[in-house]
Specification:
Distance between the termini: 100 Å
Number of helices: 13
Order of helices and strands: HEHHEHEHHEHHHHHHEEH
Helix content: 40-55%
Structural class: mainly alpha
Number of strands: 6
Number of domains: 3
Strand content: 5-15%
Shape: elongated
Length: about 350
C-alpha cells in the first residue's frame, strides 16, 4: 500500500514537473535566436507583428500562441522593440503591450539646411521626411517664421536619443527646451552687450564653426577676427559662406573642396565676398561652443586668416595685408602640390 502511494506521488511529481517545464518554456524560457529590433507601426495588424518577430524568435508558433492568449491582436503599442537573448514569449508580448520600446540615437551634425538634416533623421523614425517637414513647417509658422529652415538656430550639434515613433512636435520640443535652457540670463546679458541680434550671433557662430572645423581652441580667435571686420565695415570674406551659397543652388549635391576666384561672385545673400555685413542666418547647424565663442570673442586686432599647411586644421592670423598675402600664397602652393581642385 505504502509502495503504491509513493509511486502515485512520484507520478504526480513527474507529470506535474513535465507540464510545469512545458509551461515555463512556452511562456518564460528563452525564445530568441537572434538579437535585433522589431519595428511595429501604428497601423500594424497581428500578422505583421508576428511576421516581424519571426526573424528573431526561435519558435514562431509558441510566440504566436502566447500573443493570442494575451490578446496582442487587440492591444499593442507601436514602437521599436529590442528582442534580446534571454527573453521569453510572455516577456516579449508584455513589452509590446506596455510600449516599453527602445530609444534610438540620432547624430545632429553641421547640416547646411533643415531638410538635409530631416532626411537623415527620418531614416530612424516611423514618419517619413515629408510628414516631418510639414510638421516642422507648422511649428515654424506658429513661432512666426516662414518655414522649417528658420528653425535651424534651435538645434545644436550633438547626439540625442528618441523613440522610433517620435512625432515632429515631440522631436522639436527637446530642442526648443534645450535652446531656452542654453539662453540663460548670463548669455542674454552678453548678447545685449555684443550689439548683435540673435540671428547675427548664430550666423557668425556658423561661420566660426565651419572655419574652425569644430575645434574649440581657435573659435574665440576666429570670432574676434570676424567681429573686427564687421565693425570696420569690411566684407567678412569667409570661404564657407561661398560654399554654402553654391550648395544652396545645387541642393547640396556638388561637393566643393576648394574655393576659386570664379566662385566668389556666386549670387546669394549668404556670400560674404559679394555682400557686406553678416549673413541673414546660419550657414549650418552649430554647436554650443561656437555660440559661446561669439559671445566671448577674443580681443585681438586680426583681420586676416589663412589655413596653415604646416598645421592642418589650424590657421595663421594677422592684421597685416602683406603678411596675409605671404600666408595665402604658401597655402595655395600647398593645395597645388596636393592637386586639390
Amino acid at each position: 500500500m505504502k509502495k503504491a502511494i509513493l509511486i502515485i506521488i512520484l507520478l504526480v511529481f513527474v507529470i506535474g514537473g513535465f507540464f510545469g517545464f512545458r509551461f515555463y518554456i512556452k511562456y518564460y524560457g528563452n525564445n530568441i535566436k537572434n538579437d535585433g529590433y522589431v519595428l511595429i507601426p501604428h497601423n500594424a495588424n497581428f500578422k505583421q507583428i508576428i511576421d516581424s518577430a519571426a526573424k528573431y524568435v526561435d519558435n514562431k508558433e509558441t510566440f504566436e500562441a502566447v500573443a493570442k492568449e494575451k490578446e496582442l491582436d487587440k492591444h499593442f503599442k507601436a514602437g521599436r522593440y529590442h528582442f534580446q537573448k534571454g527573453l521569453g514569449n510572455a516577456n516579449l508580448v508584455n513589452m509590446i503591450k506596455a510600449g516599453n520600446q527602445s530609444e534610438n540615437s540620432f547624430r545632429i551634425g553641421d547640416f547646411g539646411d533643415m531638410y538635409q538634416m530631416l532626411g537623415k533623421v527620418t531614416k530612424k523614425t516611423e514618419l517619413d521626411s515629408l510628414k516631418f517637414v510639414n510638421g516642422l513647417n507648422t511649428i515654424a509658422a506658429e513661432k512666426g517664421y516662414n518655414n522649417a529652415e528658420d528653425l535651424k538656430k534651435y538645434f545644436f550639434i550633438d547626439t540625442y536619443n528618441f523613440f522610433w515613433t517620435v512625432t515632429p512636435e515631440e522631436f522639436f520640443r527637446k530642442f526648443d527646451d534645450q535652446y531656452n535652457e542654453f539662453w540663460n540670463a548670463e548669455r542674454k546679458a552678453k548678447e545685449q552687450q555684443s550689439g548683435l541680434t540673435r540671428d547675427q550671433i548664430y550666423a557668425l557662430a556658423s561661420i566660426v564653426y565651419k572655419e574652425s572645423g569644430g575645434k574649440k581652441d581657435e573659435m574665440r580667435t576666429i570670432a574676434g577676427l570676424y567681429l573686427n571686420r564687421y565693425r570696420k565695415g569690411m566684407k567678412l570674406q569667409s570661404d564657407p559662406t561661398v560654399i554654402y551659397a553654391i550648395n544652396k543652388q545645387t541642393n547640396f549635391k556638388q561637393p566643393i573642396k576648394r574655393v576659386f576666384y570664379k566662385h566668389l561672385s556666386t549670387p546669394s545673400p549668404y556670400n560674404t565676398y559679394a555682400n557686406k555685413g553678416i549673413p541673414p542666418g546660419p550657414i549650418c547647424v552649430v554647436d554650443k561652443n561656437s555660440v559661446d565663442a561669439v559671445l566671448n570673442a577674443e580681443k585681438n586686432d586680426y583681420i586676416f586668416m589663412c589655413a596653415d599647411p604646416a598645421r592642418l586644421g589650424y590657421h595663421k592670423f594677422t592684421a597685416s595685408a602683406e603678411q596675409h598675402a605671404i600666408n595665402a600664397k604658401a597655402y595655395q602652393d600647398w593645395l597645388n602640390s596636393k592637386n586639390i581642385k
